[in-house]
Amino acid sequence: MHLLAKYGVEFTFEAPVVKVDDTDFAASGDWTPAAGDVKVSKDGGNVANIGTLPTAVGGTGSVLWTWTLSATEMQAKRVTIQVVDAALENQAFIVQTHGNASAQHAVDLDDAVRAGLTALPNAAADAAGGLPISDAGGLDLDTMNSNVSAILTDTAEIGAAGAGLTEAGGTGDHLTAVPWNAAWDAEVQSECTDALNAYDPPTNAEMEARTLVAASYATATALATVDTVVDAVKVETDKLDAARTEPTGVPASNESPLTKLDYVFMTMRNKKTVSATKKTIFDAAGAAEFEYDLTDNGTTYTESEANAI
Hey, how many other C-beta atoms are within 10 angstroms of the C-beta on 57? Predict the structure, then answer.
């Protein structure tokens, strides 16, 4: 039997052995492992007693045995277990190792990222530090390298700090110390004039002569209307600071906002009485103003709308 396991790491496996002069596997009653029955050879070297004798696997009808090789015994390319006992047919198990430069196979099957191949980056492909991939396919590194080389050739002409650049005319002064001139001044003024004409604001002469369209002015009549509206608004807002008379009677559903607040304040501040069937709300003077009918069926407690006493 050939097995594969990691170099230098304790390895446990289950396997049967055959009884002597028989084709059946040996159960726990057929063989009792003893020192010298099981030996180990590392890379074809001298055999030595195994560090841990095999043990029978329990369960009805079991003919399996558990075999354990220590971490030290697993430090070899090949580890051969020989089983020699009068109760058994002579047998052997060969374990090849992986995951180490000294193993039979340097590839580390326990390393899901790069299988122990240190020449590869220790990161998943397309992740930070990993190998690049082409999501769309058709990755051509040769063409990419050629394009980069061409770009470097072109950009080299620019030179350090743009030394290879010149302005139109090629004098090499890069437009430094060029004085402002009348032609530029006229051009800027022309552009500003075009912009103002498109906007068409009132001119200074129109403002002084008051020749604008009448509708554009704030007339005395319009200002008087605004003043009237503001005064009316102030009358209403002044009510917010003034003391108010306590309401009486049953509150209607369409009371004004301030009156609704008055009823809320009355309900919160004033005396209330509650019986088994009524909740009564009183005014500040102690007179009953309105009441609620109360019901409770053991599941739901209900208060009616406010109603007259």
Answer: 15
Residue 54's Cβ-count burial label (10 Å; 0-12, 13-18, 19+) is buried
Q: What is the pLDDT of residues 187-223, one digit of tens each?
A: 999 999 898 888 877 777 877 777 666 666 667 787 8
Here the tokens at position 33 are 């492992």
Residues counted in the chain: 309
Give the CA distances from residue 212 to residues 201, 204, 217, in Å, rounded to whole numbers and listed in that order. Answer: 10, 11, 8
What residue spans define the domains of the chain? 2-98, 257-303
Please state, in angstroms and as integers, the Cα–Cα distance from residue 116 to each residue in 69, 95, 247, following that order: 23, 19, 89
Which residue carries 């097995």 as its tokens? 3
| Nearest-angstrom CA–CA distance, 257 and 79 | 95
Query: Residues 293, 304: contact at Cβ < 8 Å?
Result: yes
Fold classified for 2-98: Immunoglobulin-like (2.60.40)
CA distance 162 to 48: 77
| Distance (Å, whole) CA 137 – CA 14 | 46
Question: Is residue 185 left, alpha or beta, with left meaning phi > 0 and alpha meaning psi from -120 to 50?
Answer: alpha
* pLDDT attached to residue 281: 97
Question: What would the two tokens of residue 260 be?
Answer: 């609704």
* DSSP secondary structure string for all residues of 53-98: EEEEPPSTT---EEEEE-TTTT-SSEEEEEE--TTB--EEEEEEEE
List, for residues 71-129, the tens digit of each pLDDT value: 999 999 999 999 999 999 999 999 999 999 999 999 988 887 777 676 677 777 777 87
